[in-house]
């Protein structure tokens, strides 16, 4: 199988800008940037000005290309938009500009390679560009995106978002347990009142979807959350659901002892109701710990 070439996507203006005409940019790409990069056996291309919408293809190129070269000369708005998209998804971006271009503060943290407007005087630039491209190939995860740097690791935007998301999931789990406790309270109350069939005893089972999400995804670190404890809760909910179905079946059966059998279930429902409350309080404490943790 033929080895796939390294891909390089070039972000640059198509049409005339404040200092250069469209013809200049075409020559700049074809005979300077493209020619330089292709000598390194790299597949290089830029988007083409087609009639139909090409934003989807541009975004795919920005995300999937191994290397992106962004020419910020003349501050073209589309160039900066595409640069922002690229840096939101991937490292491996090289910013270049014509000499005397004032680099905007937002990207001034990152080194910019400057070339001479006279393309014949760019031997030093070409050497540096080649070195930078090689570095991108050899170190694809080397940080050069301020966005990705900010949203990865502890005490960063990513960790803050993840924390808030986990707290919302725990809120949902606590609400789910409260609902289950409420259902059991209704069942116990109706049985004690010796009510007869119909809507008196809720036909629905206890909920467990939020609990299943936690058990499957383990979105809370196991050092914090006791998953054996939660697995026991899951088994308890399934057992109680079976008991609820049996009670409902008894209400509609012709069993002469159904009243006493239903009464006997009160101790089971009461016991599990208290268990659910304890687990809810445990999860609430875990949630408080996470809220206080930076």
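Q: What amino acid sequence fits the structure above?
A:
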């Amino acid at each position: 199988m033929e080895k796939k070439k390294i891909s390089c996507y070039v972000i640059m203006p198509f049409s005339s800008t404040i200092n250069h005409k469209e013809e200049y940019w075409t020559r700049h790409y074809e005979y300077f940037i493209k020619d330089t990069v292709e000598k390194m056996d790299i597949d290089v291309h830029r988007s083409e000005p087609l009639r139909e919408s090409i934003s989807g293809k541009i975004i795919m190129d920005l995300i999937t290309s191994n290397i992106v070269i962004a020419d910020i000369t003349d501050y073209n708005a589309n160039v900066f938009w595409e640069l922002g998209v690229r840096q939101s998804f991937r490292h491996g971006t090289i910013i270049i500009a014509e000499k005397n271009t004032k680099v905007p503060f937002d990207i001034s943290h990152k080194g910019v390679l400057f070339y001479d407007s006279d393309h014949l005087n760019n031997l030093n630039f070409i050497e540096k560009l080649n070195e930078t491209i090689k570095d991108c190939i050899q170190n694809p995860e080397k940080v050069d995106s301020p966005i990705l740097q900010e949203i990865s690791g502890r005490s960063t935007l990513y960790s803050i978002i993840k924390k808030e998301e986990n707290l919302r999931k725990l809120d949902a789990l606590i609400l789910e347990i409260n609902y289950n406790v409420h259902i059991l309270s209704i069942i116990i109350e109706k049985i004690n009142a010796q009510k007869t069939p119909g809507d008196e005893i809720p036909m629905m089972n206890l909920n467990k979807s939020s609990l299943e999400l936690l058990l499957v995804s383990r979105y809370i670190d196991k050092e914090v959350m006791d998953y054996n404890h939660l697995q026991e809760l899951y088994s308890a909910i399934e057992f109680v659901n079976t008991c609820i179905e049996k009670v409902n079946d008894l209400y509609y059966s012709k069993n002469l002892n159904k009243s006493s059998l239903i009464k006997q279930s009160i101790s089971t429902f009461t016991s599990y109701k208290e268990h659910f409350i304890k687990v809810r309080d445990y999860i609430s404490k875990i949630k408080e710990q996470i809220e206080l943790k930076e």
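Q: And what stands out in the fold?
A: Residues 157-192 form the longest helix (36 residues).
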